[in-house]
Specification:
Largest sheet: 9 strands, mixed
CATH architecture of the largest domain: 2-Layer Sandwich
CATH topology of the largest domain: Alpha-Beta Plaits
Radius of gyration: 21 Å
Order of helices and strands: EHHEEEEEEEEHEHEEEEHEEEH
Oligomer: single chain
CATH superfamily of the largest domain: Pseudouridine synthase I, catalytic domain, N-terminal subdomain
Mean pLDDT: 93
Length: 237
């Protein structure tokens, strides 16, 4: 049993705050009965109508986007910067699962399925994300060992699941580093590399769990199929 406003939000109809307003306005019915109290709980499989529209899992959409540089991972921005949802043609209220920084590119999942988003973002489910980072300077063996051993970031140890040096460019004094983590904290890859005295020049997410970019070019996206969605749900511990 869950609070009604949470179920409405998780089914992607609107935000939880907006759902609370609709409930108080008497615009929500559960199994044919009007509900106008915020403490009401029901089963997520109940028949729910919001403002005359029935909620169902068929309203869910799942997208895999190759995020370009210069977009923020948000639905809207008060600074009027470009947001990732602008890149996808849909009339559903989708939002990004987690985030990639403004200048970070690569794989981003967007959906209106709140339950799946929570599964993929919750630390206990250990969903691995992999990145390629171009950094200033040559990453040496001691620094590589420190990264593999784990580094305290903002008071909490972060231990990548994999780290390896892909190549050096001694002439330009740069390194290309592959790094895999299950962490979801903001700027965590940049902070890890900064902790070993290397500034990130470019950062791209290559994979999210079992999903990868495939042939998607920057700014392109595709729908996830039912098999992929089911496999993402399987990350739930």
């Amino acid at each position: 049993m869950e609070r009604l406003q949470k179920i409405i939000a998780n089914k992607g109809y609107c935000s939880r705050r907006k759902a609370e307003e609709l409930i108080l306005d008497g615009k929500v019915t559960v199994n044919g009965q009007v509900v106008n109290t915020l403490g009401f709980k029901t089963d997520k499989n109940a028949i729910i109508f919001v403002d005359g529209h029935e909620l169902s899992d068929e309203n869910y959409e799942y997208y895999l986007l190759n995020k370009p540089r210069g977009y923020i991972s948000a639905v809207k921005d008060d600074k009027k910067r470009k947001v990732v949802t602008e890149l996808i043609e849909t009339d559903k209220r989708i939002y990004p699962v987690g985030r990639l920084d403004y200048d970070t590119t690569g794989l981003l999942i967007l959906t209106n399925d709140g339950e799946l988003a929570n599964i993929l973002m919750h630390p206990k489910n250990n969903v691995e994300k992999t990145y390629i980072a171009k950094i200033k300077g040559i990453l040496n063996m001691d620094e590589l060992y420190r990264l593999k051993k784990g580094i305290k970031i903002d008071g909490i140890i972060c231990r990548p699941t994999k780290v390896k040096i892909k190549k050096y460019d001694k002439e330009k004094n740069t390194s290309l580093v592959y790094i895999a983590i299950v962490e979801g904290r903001n700027h965590i890859v940049k902070k890890l590399l900064k902790a070993v005295n290397h500034e990130v020049i470019k950062l791209k997410r290559e994979s999210f769990g079992f999903l990868n970019l495939g042939n998607l070019q920057s700014g392109e996206y595709r729908l996830l199929n039912k098999k992929e969605v089911k496999k993402l749900y399987a990350y739930k511990k």
